[in-house]
Amino acid sequence: MIADVITIFPAMVEAALAAGVGGRARERGVVDVKVRDLRDYTDDRHRTVDDVPYGGGPGMVMKPEPLFRAVEAIAAERGAPSAVVLMTPQGRRFDQATAIRLSQLERLVLICGRYEGVDERVAESLVTEEISIGDYVLTGGELPALVVLDAVVRLVPGVVGDAGSVETESFAGGLLDFPHYTRPASFRGRDVPEVLLSGHHAEIARWRDAQRVERTKRRRPDLLKGNHHEGDRNG
Ligand code: 4HQ
């Protein structure tokens, strides 16, 4: 997988990408993620990326020219992107199904907005999809892009060591994960469930399945109601 992140805070994105399983996958060349400083695609002395909003009002808007130039430069270097994703609270809510779909694409571009957001013509004619990581307002699209990349990159074959852990985890099959325990078998008066110490693998698998269903009913009944397309609504 090839991915490019466009941001005015490249050091912040680089630092996060260097850490953990994703960072190691990048070192090994399993994924090729490049961070692009949007200011490198400006043409004025001050490397301006924003301007005042037409119609007035508070804050600044990201100018279209540097963003178009950045995506065009990436396309020329890497080939036409499979998707150009804009991180925005106006987008479709990110979920595991979207992570799976994006992980199967060859070339991904992620745009991180700042200020009040990007000029609408970027959303209309450069971006192929808008994604939100949730209904809250952040100061920029960098953390959302890192969230999306983290969820996507770990699905690329060879990134996560044990492929089994990708399959049996939370949301595989639309259910929450089962409870996990490690040593000691008794900790401050709380014991690991007997069945897990039994060595009866079929019984353990049944117990875990039952725990997943029970936890999902209690904590996330929405996941069981086939509401996969609607978020919660107010009112
Ligand atoms: N922002 N999911 C505003 C977000 C956000 C989110 C990104 C803040 C874009 C301009 N992005 N900027 N939530 O809050 O994706």
What best-fitting shape do the alpha-carbon axes yield? Answer: elongated
| Bound compounds | ligand 4HQ
Structural class: alpha/beta
- Strand % is 15-25%
| Count of beta strands | 9
- Unreliable stretches: 231-235
Q: Order of strands across the widest beta sheet?
A: 2-1-6-5-7
Order of helices and strands: EHHEEEHEHEHEHHEEH
The total count of helices amounts to 8
Q: Report the major sheet.
A: 5 strands, parallel
Query: Whole-number radius of gyration?
Result: 22 Å
Helix content range: 25-40%
What is the rounded distance between the termini?
A: 42 Å
Average pLDDT for all residues: 94
Description:
Mean pLDDT is 94; it is low at 231-235. 35% of the residues lie in helices and 17% in strands. It has eight helices and nine strands. Helix 4 (96-103) links the parallel strand 5 (83-93) and strand 6. A five-stranded parallel sheet has the order 2-1-6-5-7, with helices on both faces. The chain has a two-stranded antiparallel ribbon with strand order 3-4. The protein is elongated. With 235 residues, it is an alpha/beta fold. It has helices spanning 10-18, 20-27, 64-78, 96-103, 120-125, 142-153, 163-167, 201-219; strands at residues 2-7, 32-37, 50-51, 61-62, 83-93, 107-112, 129-132, 186-187, 190-191. The protein binds ligand 4HQ. Residues 87-89, 113-114, 117, 132-134, 136-138, 140-141, 144 line the site of ligand 4HQ.
